[in-house]
Amino acid sequence: MADSPEEIWASNVDAVLIASSTNTHADLLSGAIQAGKAIYCEKPVDLDINRVKAVVQQAQQTNQPILVGFSRRFDSNHLGIREALRNGEIGKWEMMHITARDPKPPALSYIKISGGQYRDQTIHFFDMLRWLAGEDPIEVYAAGEALVDPAIGEAGDVDTSMLILKFVSGALCHINCSRRADYGYDERVELFGSKGMAVSRRKPRREVTLYKGNAVVSDGLHPGWFERMEPTFYQALDALIRTIEGEKVEYPTLMDGLKAQMIAEAAVESLRTNQPVKITYWSPE
Amino acid sequence: MADSPEEIWASNVDAVLIASSTNTHADLLSGAIQAGKAIYCEKPVDLDINRVKAVVQQAQQTNQPILVGFSRRFDSNHLGIREALRNGEIGKWEMMHITARDPKPPALSYIKISGGQYRDQTIHFFDMLRWLAGEDPIEVYAAGEALVDPAIGEAGDVDTSMLILKFVSGALCHINCSRRADYGYDERVELFGSKGMAVSRRKPRREVTLYKGNAVVSDGLHPGWFERMEPTFYQALDALIRTIEGEKVEYPTLMDGLKAQMIAEAAVESLRTNQPVKITYWSPE
Amino acid sequence: MADSPEEIWASNVDAVLIASSTNTHADLLSGAIQAGKAIYCEKPVDLDINRVKAVVQQAQQTNQPILVGFSRRFDSNHLGIREALRNGEIGKWEMMHITARDPKPPALSYIKISGGQYRDQTIHFFDMLRWLAGEDPIEVYAAGEALVDPAIGEAGDVDTSMLILKFVSGALCHINCSRRADYGYDERVELFGSKGMAVSRRKPRREVTLYKGNAVVSDGLHPGWFERMEPTFYQALDALIRTIEGEKVEYPTLMDGLKAQMIAEAAVESLRTNQPVKITYWSPE
Amino acid sequence: MADSPEEIWASNVDAVLIASSTNTHADLLSGAIQAGKAIYCEKPVDLDINRVKAVVQQAQQTNQPILVGFSRRFDSNHLGIREALRNGEIGKWEMMHITARDPKPPALSYIKISGGQYRDQTIHFFDMLRWLAGEDPIEVYAAGEALVDPAIGEAGDVDTSMLILKFVSGALCHINCSRRADYGYDERVELFGSKGMAVSRRKPRREVTLYKGNAVVSDGLHPGWFERMEPTFYQALDALIRTIEGEKVEYPTLMDGLKAQMIAEAAVESLRTNQPVKITYWSPE
């Protein structure tokens, strides 16, 4: 056990896992990068996009693996539809639909420092859409309201949103996000293309069904994102470890973290102005 | 409108539909056959198998179409799994499972004259298994109880049964029958073979689902066999009419009616003796 | 059989069904209204919204039933989710998602005179969202592309669209429309609310499933909108007839037709300008 | 690492896991029981039922936990339907249906020493039906054939079976077993009762669906029983450990192992004679 990050940088551990509060990520990343450690860093890198750019710039000089915690990329259902697209099963993709609904909102105290729904919740899906599509969106239009809890609105945030993102190819992506689903953690993706459609379906807790009266009642969804996504954390850690061991493995990088945040920034602007906003990307020198 | 069957036999109608009480079927069939009418006759032909044989024998001299009301042969789901078998999709069939459950039993007064569960309810599925398999079972073992209503037991009948039927090929068929399903009319078939399995799934009333709390609640089954099977009656009538018009159409014949009843007789004997019983078939001269 | 509309107006028929080409609807409606006939008129009333207003204005003086052909209102699955909302099952609605994809586009010659995707295809769903929500949208943002066929784009139309509509309550509605789905006619609706979610699921042709290799293959969707929606036409006609007979029945009216078109006009403008557009409604004097 | 069982008995380990070949189980159990170890023993205890009785008799003097490897009792889907019955959701159970199909048969060399399909494969489901029903069957009728591989028949065994088991209450249980399912490891249970039906559905590998052409193709079943049942092994080990730690936990005991085998013996006899056979149970003194 170390008393400070510096002890860890000086030690001979191969990798570090950064899962502390968001405002500590950038400094810890910087230290770990300088120390040459492999890194697993929970999202976001930082709420201030300039700090993120700084870390990305710093990481340019190094080549240790840095994995940002977009673990949904390791979900077997989502991997399944990505394969279907890559294998040509659905042809050229034309429309993507992502549903992302948490069972309940975070505490108001957290919401106030979270950066808002798009930087905190939807950011996972800005990453997911890039990973699925294999291309970066160029424009976003966001509509959002505080329907779940007016206090969220008073805090300057929204809890119910719909977004449309455009791509160079003309393809369109829709994301809907809610901070409250009465029926559990709801995540579902449809990828529609010229030759078919692939769906990452809602995953039930169990495959148990009761036939009673005039209804057919099945087990519902998971009570939270962790229960639904638990295996992805093991898969993500495994990806980092296998990379350290020399295997060529796909994983979400710092640049992926930055791009997701740049989309989030444009979405925040779109919500503010009720206008579609072009997404500008930045690359390190 | 006619005052008597004889008026109908003498008239110039092309076809008659016999849907009167069972004990009138054999005589009406006999008259209609003699009159050269095409016939749709509700099952069963008669509860006395010798009377059925007599009608079959009589029909040997004629060639007008006589369709016995096993309308499930026209159900699109059941047709679908039959196609899968005929197309070689599932290879050689090895096991068949038929579930047949009514929402509630008929009136006790009807049960007492019905001939019992196997001659009245299961007989549809003795026909269905022959139609699906394309071969006749050679032996049957039946287990049955009066679990729904002791009065049914006191009347000498059963309301909950399981049967196993054997075939020359070695293939096995299981039927389960109940006179009461709390959740609606339940009919489902699985055809398992050397290359796969085809399922005629439970058909819901609608495709409506509610996600609420920790459950996923979908519309249930139909409230009765008629609601579930309504289109099959139109298809069956249509098959008769198209046959009259000269088209070559498959439909359940008097001989199919007789064979289903011979299986029923063996099943009744098996239940009585708690022994497997060989099924003997009879052909007209 | 009549040789002209005038003969029909002068006859003693109670009702007329207008299913001729769109450019004849307004005149025929006008004549039928004047003649006091009950009317079933296929959508749209007219591509020129001013003509529609004129007919609506004219109908103000009368009270015969005039049903506009938005027959999806009679689909049992859609009715099911509307009931769930009206019964309070899902609480206050917050997000609605409508998927509407035709198997293939209409002929280019038709597309050129159709008024475009929003006036021709999406208009059914502008009506559906009003009928489901029980309120009128106040703003719409549309994104659309010609991804299926460049010729459609050259003709000034789109074939792949996503729209977001806003409501006074803050609720949001998303519609996605495509003129081509490789896998059949695809129509699906999700109604998400404060207490749950109701889904009008994709309806399969049959309930037949094949287990083979490492896949589970079920029958797919219907080959076209008519096969999927056939029963709704009978239900719609039945609604008109029952209304004529004095029963109080819900059905889509001329005003519903007009409102759907006003939403379509705003959507067309939004697509043209890539701006959200406020929807203004008009009422007759 | 120990060189012999005796070293293990003499050591201070709290528990042993016996997963060696079947013919070693009885001796190892005896030694472990004598040594006072807690035990996890893979099924079966022994193919010779008298040896099983001897071990059960010996274990009567002791009270350490002895868990027999019927790990399906820990499957969350099966637990779900057992809860539904225990909670009164489906009323009094009347019919149970168990489907159990392996992707492919074991090696012929194994089959020859396995004791046959009922002692080797179906035995898991003899245990499962007791665990679900909460009562012991009193009679069994078995029908079986070698349809998958004639060599299995030549070895005196069967690979395709249907069984009906009767209970004092009148309830009926059907099991179907196959040594070969083209489409993966297939395990499914239906519990039908006076107030409804609970189903432990087929569990797919993933929740991924492809809509293409006229079909809807979903991921299929698991490639083997281990992949399907993996979590149950952890749950079963966990049950033993928690018992050792003093918690009151349900698990399958030696007596459960014996009873399953007694049912298997009666099933073997029934197959041999083509007669229903009463199941006699034995209790240790």
Describe the structure.
- Four copies of one chain form a homotetramer.
- Chain A has helices spanning 5-10, 22-34, 49-59, 76-86, 108-111, 117-120, 123-133, 150-154, 225-244, 254-273; strands at residues 15-18, 38-41, 66-68, 93-101, 139-145, 160-166, 172-178, 186-193, 196-200, 208-212, 215-219, 277-278.
- Chain A is an alpha/beta fold and 285 residues long.
- Chain A has a seven-stranded mixed sheet. A three-stranded parallel sheet of chain A has the order 1-2-3, with helices on both faces.
- β11 of chain C pairs antiparallel with β11 of chain D, so a sheet runs across the interface.
Features:
globular, 285 residues, homotetramer, alpha/beta, three-stranded parallel sheet, seven-stranded mixed sheet
Q: What's the gyration radius of chain A in Å?
A: 20 Å
In the predicted model, the low-confidence regions of chain A spanning at least 5 consecutive residues are: none
Strand content of chain A: 15-25%
Extended strand count of chain A: 12
Task: Characterize the overall form of chain A.
Answer: globular
H/E series of chain A = HEHEHEHEHHHEHEEEEEEHHE
What does the main sheet of chain A amount to? Answer: 7 strands, mixed
How many separate helices of chain A?
A: 10
Query: Strand order, biggest sheet of chain A?
Result: 9-8-4-7-6-5-12
Oligomer state equals homotetramer
Helicity range of the residues of chain A? 25-40%
Mean model confidence by pLDDT of chain A: 96
How far is the N terminus from the C terminus of chain A?
37 Å
Structural class of chain A: alpha/beta
- Report the largest inter-chain contact: A-C, 37 and 37 residues
